[in-house]
Amino acid sequence: MLRRIDLRGTTLSAGELADVLPRATLDVEAALAQVLPIIQDVRDRGAAALRDLAERFDGVRPEHLRVPVDALEEALAGLDPQVREGLELAIAHNRAGHQAQLPSDRDTEILPGGHVRQRWLPVGRVGLYVPGGLAVYPSSVIMNVVPAQVAGVRSLAVASPPQAEFGGLPHPTILAACALLGVEEVYAVGGAQAVGMFAYGAAGEEGTSDGAELCAPVDVVTGPGNIYVAAAKRAVMGRVGIDAEAGTTEIAVLADASADPRFVAADLISQAEHDPAAASVLVTDSPELADAVDAEMERQVAATTHAERVRTALTGPQSGTVLVTDVEQGLAVCDAYGAEHLEVQTVDAAAVAARVRNAGAIFVGPYSPVPLGDYLAGSNHVLPTGGTARFAAGLSVMAFLKPVQVVEYDDAALRKVAEPLRALAVSEDLPAHADAVDVRFG
Q: Could you tell me which residue, 146 or 442, shows the higher pLDDT?
């Protein structure tokens, strides 16, 4: 089922590998031209623009752009008990996982009486985007809200597309997840317009329940979405901080002959289920395993709910099997690919995984499938895509924290460095810098 790329016996550089590996196309520049007028419209017309854009893109004109609190409470009251139990478990696991990410403040004495303190401060306000589209993602509510709350952010707003099926409100399970997390500021706004609303704020409409100000601007925007959300985040970057320009989901599985083809096939299918453009890539030194995985996928795809979507993703140019000489070459291929999700199903999987440099998240061994990370592992599922794992990381508390250096020197400490400071300042032709020190000592 998967097309094959045979790299056995080749010695390609990382750049050459990146060129031949299967990859979903993500033309953010083209999408940027389409989202800029949308963002400007939201800046100019606020709530009126958001309603018009919802009607245009979501097929519904929301009565309430800000979701009423009673709608959040009703959604939670009507939530299936088993789903609620799963969400509560996911929240608990993710709080534990993200709590471990918190950095500690440090005080370094550079010389007697001269201190530099490293403080970590949360941003004041964040806008968290939860996509709609082909699936419902209450798990994305958790993955965005929990690290922001653990970081200490005091003001959080969530946006998710309005649904015609639910009277112009986001999906009830999205609302219920917000209620479970204590988030009351929730907007029925999707796509690039949500990013624009967060970045610039949005005025309300006179005579409506939205009031004089619908949404105040935020400091940071996070959350996954389609290419238009990614383009909108690029457009507002600098006005606000962003986590990443997330694209379509992707999985790579590094496997040898010891891997169970049933597991590998199921894991590749699980990501293909997200989107027809999702990428599923197998990297293996075993042609026999590749054959067995293809046979398993034919069987499993026929039985899966979203068979047409899955088959489109698996047979697209973004998916494939890469044959390598050995696991060593497989590691080089995986680092060149920089997958959003990388599974390692080999002999000594933990040792192999420890050598991986580029991946959004690494799943070790046969009993750590990617869906575990999507929901309950305690890790975050908002991860870098499109090879950006070479330099970017998944969403964490660090997206909502900023390091601030606090400098405190006493008289003796400043006097001790005054002479070398003057020499450096004069060498840069900035003598007033030195004078600002010397004036303190007459």
A: 146
Structure tokens at 186: 């929730």
What region, left, alpha or beta, does residue 87 occupy, with left being phi > 0 and alpha being psi -120 to 50 degrees? alpha
Has residue 393 been placed in a domain?
Answer: no
Task: Say how far residue 119 (Cα) sits from the centre of its chain.
Answer: 25
The whole-number pLDDT of residue 83 equals 97
Q: Is the pLDDT of residue 209 over 80?
A: no
Q: What is the pLDDT of residues 123-141, one digit of tens each?
A: 999 999 999 876 788 999 9
Question: In this predicted structure, what is the pLDDT of residue 207?
Answer: 53
Residues 222 and 257 in one domain: no
Question: Whole-prediction pTM value?
Answer: 0.92
The verdict on residue 385 lying in a domain is no
Residue with tokens 């790299």: 7
Q: What residues make up the domain containing 433?
A: 410-441
- Cα–Cα distance between 87 and 187 in angstroms, integer? 21
Q: How far is CA 203 from CA 49, 69, 200, 269, 288, in A?
A: 10, 20, 10, 44, 61
Nearest Cα residue to 340 out of 379, 303, 305: 379
Question: For residue range 413-436, what is the model confidence (pLDDT) as tens digits?
Answer: 999 999 999 999 999 999 999 999
Catalytic residue list: 340-341
Gap between the Cα atoms of 11 and 324, Å rounded: 11
Nearest alpha carbon to residue 150 among 86, 97, 77: 97
Q: Across residues 286-292, what is the average pLDDT?
A: 98
Secondary structure letter of residue 105 according to DSSP:
P
Separation between Cα atoms, residue 200 and residue 236, nearest integer Å: 9
356: which residues sit within 8 A by CB, 6+ positions away?
331, 334, 335, 342, 344, 362
* 237/254 same-domain check: no
- β-pairing, 114-122 with 106-111? antiparallel
**Is there a contact between 180 and 189 (Cβ–Cβ < 8 Å)?**
no
CATH number of the domain where residue 148 is located = 3.40.50.1980
**Percent of the chain with pLDDT strictly greater than 70:** 98
